[in-house]
Every structure is written in C-alpha cells, then in structure tokens.
Design brief:
Serine Threonine Protein Phosphatase 5, Tetratricopeptide repeat, SBP_5_dom, 30 strands, six-stranded mixed beta sheet, 37% helix, seven-stranded mixed beta sheet, Dipeptide-binding Protein, domain 1, 5 domains, alpha+beta, flat
C-alpha cells in the first residue's frame, strides 16, 4: 500500500464514468476494461477512503473523469504519475508536453512521483522550510485539486530547472540543434531566470566555435557579434579576438572574390559597432581600402589625361565608393562630370528594337525616345484623353471637330528636325491612309476624308465625321528618312554605338544644348529590381528606370535618392498567340482566368505586401486610373468586377470545355484535338518571370501541363509557333486608339470576334467624348465576356535617380522625355 500522502479536495464531487471514452483508450496494454456500471460504486467508496489510497486516488479520479479505458495506442499519455521509480527521459518530446513540475515523495510516505501543473510558490528554487499542505493539480485530471503534506515531499524538479538542465547537457555534448529549442522556451517563458544569461552566452560561444571549426565563418561571426551585443562582459578579450580574427578572414575572402561592396559594408558595420575596441582587422582593411582607392584614383587621372573619359568615370566612381573620404576623389568625379558628363541607367529590360510608339515593349518604348522623335508626342493625360504635342509646330481643330490643321514652325528645332519639309510630312500622313503602305492605320483611314496644303507650312485634314482626338491617330516615329537620310537614322539627341548582353551605349550626336548635358548614356541590364536598387544606393548606377512598388516605397526614405511615379499606368495581361485548339475556346479561357489567384500574386508576389494606390486587379483591357476620378480611367467600367479566384469553377470549366470539344468533333466526324502543354511566354525581366512562375503553379493545380518560355533579351512577343500565351505589360494610354492596336484583327490579340469587331467600329464612329466613353465601356464589357485577352492587373511604375542628376523632371511619360535637359552636378 502506498503511504498516505495525497488527499482529494472534498469540494470536488465524483462524476459517473462515461460509457464511451471521448478521447481514446489510455490504459496500459492488457488492462481490464472498466464500465460505469461495474465501477462507479467502488470508485465513490474508494474516494471516501482516499486518505488511505495514496497515489491510487489519482487513478480513481481518472476513472471518474472518464480517462481510463482499453487500448494501447496512447498508453504513454497516462504516465503522469507512478508509485515508484522516476519518469522516463522524453528527450525533445519534453517540449511537446504541458509545462509541469515533477514532485517526488519520500520513501517513508510510500515513494512515487507525480506530474503537476506549475506550482505557485514564492521560491521556485528550493522547498526547504515548507510546512502545511501542498496544493497540486495533476496533469490529465481536470478540475481536481489534491493536497499533499510538505513533510511527504522529498524534492520537486521544477520545470524551468529541467529546461535549464536539458539545455546545459546538450551544450556540453555539442548538440546545439537539440539545445536550441529548450533555450528558446527558457528565453520566452522565464526571461528573469538568474542563470539564463550565462546559459545563453555559453550556447552562443560554443556554437560559434563549433561552426568556425566547420568553416561556417559567416554564421560564426554573426553569433559572436550577437553574443557581444547580448552580454558585453562575457570573455571580453577572447570574444573580441575571435571577432577580429573571423572578420579578417572573411574580409580577405570577399576582396579575393571581387566582392568589394560586401566587404565595405561588413567593414563599416564592424567599425561602427566596435568603435574604440582597436580591432586589428579594422585598421588593416581600412588601410587596404585606402590603397585600393588611391590606385583607382591614379588610374582615373591617367585615363582622363588620355581622354578615355568612360574609363576615367568608372575608375573615379570606384575610388569614391571604396573610400568616400579619400582626398580629391569627389573633386575628380565632379571634374569629369564637367568635362565629359555620363549617366549610367540601370534597366530591367534591355532594348533591341527601338520604337518610341511601341505599346507592348517597355524597353523599346523607353530607349526609342533617345533616338527618335514622334510626329505627335504624348505629354500626359488630361480631362479629355491624352495631351499631345506636335513635333514641328502647332495644331488647331475646328469647333465642329471636322477640320484638323497642322502649322509648321521648325526654326527653333535642332538638326535634322529643323530641315523638315511640309510636303514630305504631307506624304507621310497620307501614307497612313493608304492600304498598300507599311504605316497604314485603319482608324485614320476611316476618319480621313481629304487632305490639302495651304502653302509649305500648313496641312489641312478634313474628317468624315467629328473625331474627339485626331492627334492620337498620328503617332508616327520620325527617323532620318524624313530628311533625306538613311532609314533608321536617329532624329533624337543620341545614337546607339555599342550593344552587348549587359550594356547599351548611347552617345550625343550634336553639340550639347547645355554644358552639362550627358555626352553618353549607358544602359546596364540588372538581373532583378533588388540588384538595381543595390547598385543605385552604392552609386554604380545613377538612374533606375523601373521599380517594384515595394522597392519604390523603401527607396523613398533614402536621402541620396529621389523616387517619382510615372503618371500613366501599365496594364498587364495574357494574350493568346497561337492556334492552340483549347486556348481558342472561350470556355477554356474562362477556366484559365478563374484558375489564377490574381489578387494573391499581385499583393503577395509583386507588391510584397505594400499597399500602393492604383495597383489593382482589373477586369478589362484598359487602365483603371490611380483613383476613381482619374481621367486616365475614362475607358474602364468599374461596375464590372474582376473574376474571383475559383479553382473549383476552373476545373469544372476545363471539363465542360473538353466535353463541348468532344461533342463538336463527333458531330463533325473528326478526331478531338489533343491537349498539348500550354506554353506561357514572358519577357526576360524579373517581374514578368515572378508573375508567370506563380501563374504556372496555379494552373498546375488544375491538372494542366504548363511550360514557361523566356523570350530573348529585348523581345516582348514570341516568334510564331513558340508559345500559346504571352505575358505582356501594355501602355494603353489612349484607349480610343489603342483598343484597335490591341484587339483588332491586325492587333496584338488578333481577335476575329464579331462583338469585339462591332465594338471597335462603333468606337471609331464616336462624334464626341460622351459617345466615345460609352462605347469604350461597352467594349470593356465585350472583352470581359469574350476574353480575347486575359486581364491580370494594373501597376503604377516608378523610377529613381541620384540627387546629383537634375532635369529629369516629374510626370514624365518616358524616362528620356527630358534627356536633353539632364545635368550632372
């Protein structure tokens, strides 16, 4: 018989044993099955005699609560007490148990042990001097409080002491992965434990030494620095010596690998954090960077003297970056900026074909503005569509909108634009209405009735019907062939002189308009937006042409960087680009759209959780504008909500489409087309890649086979037969014109849908802005139903530049819109 040392609180009444155990079998293997009818009477009787029952009372309470029944699967869960011995060592499983104290009873009282919920004691380190009764709540017995005489308690193994002991033992045998969970619980639940500082310090020190022995120097140094911050008095000399030695080793590796930026950051952080500690490695590598910077500066001066200004710029920037305080380095950079200004532009997409009017290729549109001007250039958005500027002078439209006049004033233009001939421009505009011409545009041909000239400096266009914005019909790139030069000859301020996989170099053609106008603009392709941001902050590039919204938000806090938003958004969509039989079916395209979690991709992958006004999922092909009253959103119908992510609906539509195609094939007595893998193409930039990888993974959940196709550098549309859908971002800045460029039979989507065709024709017959807007909203509806394209989202793009560059401007449609006014200071 166990000694009489546990007493049940009489306030707790016994309850009948349930016939079914709700939490499963918890008896030892081979135990007799208990039922309520057989045992309630004896349980109640035994509970009255509890003073003589010892630990058996605990078992009885289990029975009363319905915790004991047959079974072996969960027998170990009953081990919350025993009449002899000690509990088994659970190892890491201890952390899976409810926090508890282990109470051990004296041999005189019958021995045994019990797991109790944490005891509320003023001193949880010793039980000496305790008298009276100890109140105990045993694990596994809810709503029961037991009492035990303090004189029957031999010792208590407190929960925090067990955690401390487990941690120390694992540290001693270098099991740091095993020690960490115990240490974490101690830090979380017992932050004021007296020995915690020493235990945590020992853990960091020993783990750092162990990692260093395995050549994990970066991790080892990080742990030593954390130890120094946490406990500055711990092994002071040895700790600083270890930090010094590891820093020296890592600095050497970084410099040897050419990672000077990382080495500088590391040295700067160490110097700031351990100022006054006289670390030898800090002094050593400071001197090394001074030597390297001085060497770069001497090389820059030599390059300047031989008029190799490009190399001189690079070396001088390196010198400043290596040692900003180096005497004369910044002055040399300013001198080079004065002698031969250069600007380095980081780009996510490299340009190959240059066309400032290309609405589907960001890079082509951006860099094309450096080489070519446009007959009518968009300068922004107003309350009635785009605001256009006639390259060669002024324009005037009659009150009835049936007459559109162009007046030439070329005298103030730079060459070759000042050589313009009104008759040549007349022919170029007339070609826009000739079906056999390469520049033929059906919308202009439908609008134009006749043309004439009132002398060499005035062209008059008579329209068939009133047109709300005739200037938008004449966005023609102007190249040198307009002035008797070669086809493709530049008419802007710059020419492209070098192109490789990483860099494209543009050189000023004529004399600079202002003294500090850049003589060269060098575009450097960066692998990701993050890399571009890092290079901008380090001074390796001066301008970054495109930012993720999240990067733009972070850069705005930098004192050295300016961030501005482009005033016009880009619209992102998937465009069918093959004769894939399934993609050709509207039902299947609906399934694809329902199968894309556009909200999640936009907010999670692209925006990285940042709330950016204007960045939103869209339901149609036109921009929604930044705000509800944004004039850029005049073509967007806000009453049409984007389709939600419904994978179950998507699967149903895939099956429905398959049945429809099977039935159609049977009626036509043909074989049903084979479901080949979907080839999804995307431009070679990080944003497009991120979006398409997410789309692929979601389509695969529909049991679709998807292949990603990365387009060649500079391309935005796949070659025929290489892809079925293409991810693209479009500059739909004038929907009244761009609708046909996107949706027409000769547009990007090459839609032959009768409703889309009807909507385009009705749009082009609009006589005023009210009609134009109503018909654009109707076209939005047709697109949302027929899905010639799969609309994804709208993004507000940003650009960033170092404050030393002036004249870039704000509210610019294109990065190089004011390139002739850029100044380096």
């Amino acid at each position: 018989m166990i000694a009489k040392h546990i007493v049940w609180n009489p306030a707790s009444k016994p309850t009948p044993f349930p016939t079914t155990d709700p939490i499963g079998a918890r008896c030892r293997p081979g135990a007799t099955q208990f039922t309520a009818d057989d045992h309630v009477e004896r349980i109640v009787r035994r509970s009255i005699e509890i003073s003589a029952g010892g630990l058996r009372c605990i078992l009885l309470c289990f029975l009363v609560a319905g915790a004991v029944s047959t079974g072996v699967a969960r027998a170990a869960e009953l081990l919350n007490y025993a009449q002899s011995g000690s509990p088994p060592d659970p190892g890491l499983q201890l952390l899976q148990e409810e926090p508890h104290d282990l109470i051990f009873f004296t041999q005189d009282s019958g021995a045994g042990w019990v797991k109790a919920r944490l005891l509320d004691l003023p001193n949880r380190t010793s039980i000496s001097g305790q008298t009276g009764t100890l109140r105990v709540e045993v694990l596994g017995i809810d709503d029961r409080v037991f009492g035990a005489k303090w004189s029957d308690v031999e010792r208590i193994d407190f929960w925090e002491q067990r955690l401390k002991r487990e941690t120390a033992e694992r540290i001693a045998r270098r099991d740091f992965k095993g020690a960490y969970p115990f240490l974490s619980v101690l830090i979380r639940d017992f932050p004021n434990l007296p020995e915690l500082t020493q235990i945590r310090s020992d853990f960091l020190w020993q783990d750092a030494i162990d990692r260093a022995s395995r050549s994990e120097f970066v991790q080892s140094l990080a742990m030593l620095k954390e130890l120094r911050r946490y406990n500055p008095d711990y092994k002071v000399e040895r700790l600083l010596g270890a930090i010094d030695g590891l820093n020296d080793r890592l600095m050497g590796q970084l410099v040897e690998d050419g990672k000077l930026d990382d080495a500088q950051k590391m040295l700067s952080q160490l110097e700031d954090e351990y100022r006054g500690q006289n670390l030898k490695s800090v002094a050593k590598w400071n001197q090394a960077f001074v030597r390297m910077a001085t060497q770069r500066m001497d090389q820059a001066i030599a390059a300047k003297d031989r008029e190799d200004y490009r190399e001189a710029h690079r070396l001088a920037r390196d010198a400043v970056h290596l040692r900003p305080s180096l005497a004369g380095a910044k002055e040399l950079v300013r001198e080079l900026n004065r002698i031969y200004p250069m600007v380095n532009v980081g780009v996510l997409q490299a340009a190959r074909d240059l066309d400032p009017t290309n609405m589907s290729n960001w890079a082509s549109r951006r860099s094309g503005r450096l080489l070519y001007r446009t007959l009518f250039e968009m300068r922004g958005a107003g309350p009635e569509g785009g605001e256009y500027e006639f390259l060669f002078g002024q324009t005037e439209q009659s009150a009835d909108r049936l007459e559109f006049d162009l007046y030439f004033e070329p005298e103030s233009l730079p060459p070759p634009l000042n050589q313009v001939n009104g008759f040549d421009v007349f022919d170029r505009i007339a070609d826009r209405a000739r079906p056999e011409s390469e520049t033929y545009f059906t919308a202009f041909a439908a609008a134009l009735k006749t043309m004439g000239m009132n002398g060499p400096k005035e062209i008059r266009c008579i329209l068939r019907r009133p047109h709300v914005l005739p200037a938008s019909l004449l966005q023609l790139p102007v190249d040198g062939s307009w002035f008797g030069q070669e086809i493709g000859a530049p008419t802007g301020d710059y020419e492209r002189v070098d192109v490789d996989e990483v860099e494209s170099r543009y050189r000023l053609i004529n004399e600079p308009r202002i003294e500090s106008q850049p003589r060269e603009i060098i575009e450097t392709k960066v692998s990701s937006a993050a890399e571009g941001v890092a290079q901008l902050l380090q001074g390796e590039i001066d301008v970054l042409d495109q930012l993720f919204p999240s990067d733009a938000a972070r850069l705005k806090s930098s004192r050295d960087i300016r961030v501005s938003e482009y005033p016009l958004p880009t619209v992102h969509m998937l465009i069918p680009c093959s004769d894939h039989p399934f993609v050709a079916e509207r039902t299947f395209r609906r399934a694809l759209l329902y199968g894309i979690n556009r909200e999640d991709i936009l907010k999670g992958e692209l925006l990285e959780g940042f709330q950016t006004p204007g960045c939103q999922v869209i339901s149609g092909p036109f921009p929604a504008g930044k705000e509800r009253d944004d004039p850029m959103g005049y073509a967007y119908d806000r009453t049409i909500q984007p389709r939600r992510y419904e994978p179950s609906v998507a699967k149903l539509l895939v099956a429905l489409n398959q049945n429809e195609m099977k039935s159609a094939a049977q009626r036509a007595e043909k074989e049903m087309p084979e479901m080949t893998p979907l080839r999804l193409a995307y431009p070679s930039d990080n944003l497009s890649r991120t979006a398409c990888e997410a789309i692929k993974s979601q389509w695969q959940l529909l049991d679709l086979d998807v292949e990603l196709v990365e387009l060649p550098t500079g391309a935005s549309y796949p070659q025929e037969g290489t892809a079925d859908l293409v991810y693209t971002s479009l500059a739909i800045w004038e929907p009244i014109i761009d609708a046909r460029r996107l949706l027409g039979p000769d547009g990007l989507a090459q839609s032959g849908n009768q409703y889309i065709g009807l909507g385009l024709r009705q749009l082009e017959e609009s006589r005023n802005w009210r009609e134009a807007r109503d018909r654009l909203l109707l076209l939005h509806f047709y697109v949302s139903q027929e899905l010639p394209i799969l609309p994804l989202w709208q993004l507000i793009d940003s650009y960033a530049y170092r404050r030393q560059i002036r004249g870039i401007g704000t509210d610019i449609v294109s990065l190089y819109e004011n390139a002739d006014q850029w100044q380096l200071q």
